[in-house]
Amino acid sequence: MSPYRDHRAPGGRQNRPSRKQRAMTAKQASNKGGTGAGQTSDAHVSGGVRLQKVLAEAGLGSRRACEQLIVDGRVEVDGSIVTELGTRIDPETQSVYVDTVRISTQTKKVYLVLNKPAGVVSTMSDPEGRPCLADYVRNNTERLFHVGRLDTETEGIILLTNDGELSNRLAHPRYEIPKTYVAKVKGQLAKDAGAILKAGIDLEDGFVKVDDFKLVDSTPGKSVVELTLHSGRNRIVRRLLAEIGHPVERLVRLKFGPIVLDEQKQGKIRPLRSDEVGALFEAVGL
């Protein structure tokens, strides 16, 4: 059992050393060098899966490359650095970190990102028969949760997973996950629009402010802006921009925490890479 259990949430790590501290420990282990002699560590689970196989299946490289990661002292299991190639683990219950970043090893867990088109409802079913998120995951047998929501006309990143704990943490205000949007709005913005939004506005459901704001483009009667905020309230971006006199004509979410839309086409869904899942874990303290 890891010594870094968080009493506030299952699997949490309140007293876990910082990334810098763990990196220094990993460096020290690397300087000593692993034995590579087939010995077993405290993380060893009899009848488990070889650690290098778990790493390879998580997308960390070839089996040989993953063996080198272990020998170099860059792999941590349940709070302990492992350098023995004979170590076997249970990927469904043990936590594995590479270079202090947690990786996904649970084969039954699914982590997807959809570039949601406008007109799609952010639910897994719709009694009115409108297009919904479930239409994009018909081939998945697992029960998936959507992480938060986008209103029907908003496009862009929405995450789907069967990892309930991760989903709950990502949606919880306590973790303040930043979301970045680009919006096409009516009118040309005043010079102090960004300052007003950063200072904050009182809406009917409370005070809210943006973390970052920039004007991307401006033409007669139209403006394109990019803004980042961590609030997940309903239609929050649309309401903020309307409050300063610039109703939204089109809205796209470009980023959700460490996950970036990049060149992913609209309506396409893809599995998250291992490093992306690890970055999400890191963002919510898992």
From TrEMBL:
UniProt superkingdom: Bacteria
E.C. numbers: 5.4.99.-
Segments crossing the lipid bilayer: none
Catalytic activity annotation: a uridine in RNA = a pseudouridine in RNA
RNA-binding S4 domain location: 49-118
Family: Belongs to the pseudouridine synthase RsuA family.
Protein name: Pseudouridine synthase
Origin species: Brevibacterium linens
